[in-house]
Write a structure and sequence with these properties.
One of its GO terms (cellular component) is plasma membrane. By secondary structure, the protein is mainly α. It has twelve helices and no strands.
Length: about 290
């Protein structure tokens, strides 16, 4: 636990380098003086692991020790933080596993403190993982940043409202020292929650800006297309009659024969093989023409 508290103090000292800039301009982007968010997340994860080990040792502290003498038990009772007759119930609720002897060894308030610190450092680790994704991951990682910050926001809100650890809830019993510690932890959680909300809103705005407006979407709509390419209509060739192959060939032959006959009638050689047509025969156009006696 002492090592975890020292790690916690080192994290706070590291983050004080950019405390002024973060207070003046909170949220993204991070100031240049701010330490690496990836480093901050790893430090918080290690701190949570140390507190988890300390809590595991605290829960099993009395299992491997001999029974206390009456004098030692009385001294331990004075060391307890004034929880009165609720110690027995508190120890069994926390999973101490022994009853009165375990409560004399480790008071429930200490276990609640360790549980609260585990939850806080896990939430802050998720916060800085989200900030690292938003700052160094590019536009494609903005959604990941929003996801981590949403996770951190939910954990801190659970701690603010009491959560599963129970250490943040305001109880009816306890000394003034306990109440001061609870109020201090609650104020710390509220401050961390406010910082997470600022980063969450900033990265969510950036993530929403990736979605283009409707006018841009309308301009990018392509033209439609047919499922099957359209082919030009070709008139079928008839099997017979006008337009058929036989008909076209016959007409071509007739035109050719007419052309040859015209050339033979229009001109001939000087010898004249065909007899000359009398002029009156060419001019006769009635019955009996040329048959004059």
């Amino acid at each position: 636990m002492a090592l975890a508290d020292a790690q916690n103090l080192a994290i706070r000292k590291l983050l004080t380098r950019a405390a002024y800039e973060s207070t003046v301009t909170p949220g993204p982007p991070l100031p240049k003086s701010h330490p690496s968010p990836a480093l901050a997340s790893k430090l918080h994860l290690e701190c949570a692991a140390l507190y988890t080990s300390a809590r595991a040792l605290a829960k099993t502290a009395g299992a491997s020790r001999p029974a206390l003498s009456p004098t030692s038990s009385s001294a331990k009772s004075k060391f307890k933080l004034g929880l009165g007759g609720s110690n027995k119930d508190g120890s069994s609720a926390e999973g101490g596993g022994g009853g009165r002897d375990d409560a004399d060894e480790v008071v429930p308030e200490l276990r609640r403190y360790l549980s609260d610190e585990i939850a806080v450092h896990n939430a802050l680790a998720h916060k800085w993982l989200g900030v690292d994704a938003g700052e160094n991951g590019g536009p494609q990682q903005t959604g990941t940043a929003v996801g981590f910050l949403t996770w951190s926001k939910k954990e801190l809100e659970d701690l603010k409202n009491g959560g599963s650890a129970g250490g943040m809830a305001v109880g009816t019993m306890g000394t003034e020292r306990e109440k001061e510690m609870r109020e201090a932890r609650k104020a710390r959680v509220l401050g961390d929650l406010e910082s997470v909300n600022v980063f969450f809103k900033g990265y969510k705005r950036m993530n929403d800006s990736i979605v283009p407006p409707q006018s841009d979407l309308q301009a990018s709509i392509p033209a439609g297309r047919m499922a099957i390419a359209i082919r030009a209509y070709t008139k079928p060739v008839p099997a017979f009659g006008p337009g058929s192959a036989d008909y076209v060939q016959k007409m071509a032959e007739e035109l050719e024969s007419l052309g040859v006959g015209g050339e033979g009638g229009g001109g001939g050689d000087s010898s004249g093989t065909s007899p000359a047509v009398p002029p009156h025969k060419a001019e006769a156009s009635y019955a009996g023409a040329g048959s004059y006696y």
